[in-house]
Amino acid sequence: MGNSLPPQYQKTTYLTDCLGNNAFDFEKRSESNPEPQLRLAPLIQTNNLQDLRISRETAFEVYEENKTRSFAGLENFLQLNLPNLPPIYIFDNHNHAFYFWHFEKSRNHLTTPARLIHIDQHKDSRIPASFLNEQDSQDLNKVYQYTNEILNVGNFIPPAFHTKLISEFILVDSSQSLNNFASDHPEILQNSKPQNLILDLDLDFFAPELDYIGNSQKLTLIKQLLPLASVVTIATSPFFLDQQQAIKWCQVILSEN
Question: Beta strands 231-235 and 88-91: pairing type?
């Protein structure tokens, strides 16, 4: 494997100001901890899912029921280059996807505008405080800063339209959208070759409260789509899913069988 890691993600950093995901309940959290911060993990290149481990530090934090609740993220984010699959990125908070989509565009692995398939129990389509313009989206330093200081886990998809990275948003968030995917988008599944397509997965779609949808059906669609995409992004979402469960689902999804 050649080194293709983005320099912005090659070391551990911390979000310390009232920005990005750290802005959630910042004032309330500051009452018990004067300097609330969130860890941004480094990205490593590997083909071994055993490198997917939970950190001891906080990646997401909220104030609920009169107390601060802290959630550990991943020790490292992973860039995987598996046989017969596109580049795959695994990370904790979902807004990091915005950076990795633009990074893959810079590597010419993604042509814009692309189609986005978003498999998630949330739409992540809230409007952020500001947008990054198309010209600034060519500068990965600006993309990194925007991803982590302006965006959060719930608002990173509208900016991808604004930078003209994507032109279409296909949401799979329910039994109905899962059942109807093949009939609604036959042109995707009937094409056996890789397409100008982003497959974006939030593992909270496998959270226990969504078991009624049918995990085998979820897996079938995801495994069908994996080799058809230009890039795959996978969020473990520590606030919404136990991270041991998230790692388990990563291993199931990316296993050869």
Answer: parallel
